[in-house]
Write a structure and sequence with these properties.
Blueprint (H helix, E strand, L loop, with lengths): L1 H19 L20 E2 L5 E2 L10 H8 L4 E6 L6 E11 L2 E9 L3 H10 L2 E4 L5 E4 L2 H6 L5 E8 L5 H8 L4 E4 L4 E6 L4 E6 L5 E4 L6 H17 L1
Antiparallel strand pairs: 1-2, 3-4, 3-7, 4-5, 5-8, 6-7, 8-12, 9-10, 10-11, 11-12
Amino acid sequence: MKFALSIIALIAIALIVPFLVPGLGKQEGVDPNANLPWQIELDAQGGSSVFGLRPGISTVGDVRQKFGSEMDVAIIAEPNEMGTLEGYYSQVALGFVLAKVIVTVDAKKELISEMRDRALRAKHMESSTHKITLNPDDLVAIEKMAVKAISVIPSVNLDEATVIQRFGQPGERLAVSEKRVHLLYPEKGLDVVVDGDGKELLQYVAPRNFAELREPLNKLEGEKSSAQ
C-alpha cells in the first residue's frame, strides 16, 4: 500500500511541478520564461497584453503569427444557438506550460449567420455541439478580425492554491459547485476556473470588457440561489 501511495504521489508531482518550477517544461526554440499565463501587462486604457497578444485588438492573423498556421477555425454551436466563431490549437507552448488554446473571434451574430449559410459542412461534437466548417472565402476574411477572448486549458491539473500563488488573490471567488470554482480577477481581465473533476480553464479578455466574463456567471448564481 505504501508503495502504491508513493507512486501516486510521484505522478501528482510530475503533473504539477512543471507549472510551478520554470524550465521543467521547456520546449525547443521556446523561451521558458516568456509568454507565461500569469505574465499579464496592463495599459491605462483598460486593455491588456498576454502571450504577446492584446484581447480585443489583436487579429486572427496576429494569433497565427504568434502560435502557428495550424489553427483550426470553425463556428462552434450548441443546439438551437447561433454559435461563436473560434480558433483552436491542440497544443501550444506558453513558456514552460503546455496548453490547448482557444480564441474567440469578435463577430456579430448577423455575420455568423451569414457564414453559416455559406458553410461547407457541420460535424457533431460531444454533447450534440456542432462544429461548422467555414467557406474558404470566409476563412480568408476573418484573418483581419479581432480576437475578443483567449482561453487556455493547461495540460497539468491545477488547484486553487497554485493559481493564487501564480496570479495573486482574486478579486472575487465564486463557487458554482462543490468542485468547481471561478477565481475572478477583474483588474486583469481574467477568470480562472478550477475544476476538481476536470481540466482548469483560464479565460482572458481586456479588463475593460470583464463584464463579458462576469455576466454569464450571474445566471449561474441565480440558478444556484433558486435551487437552494
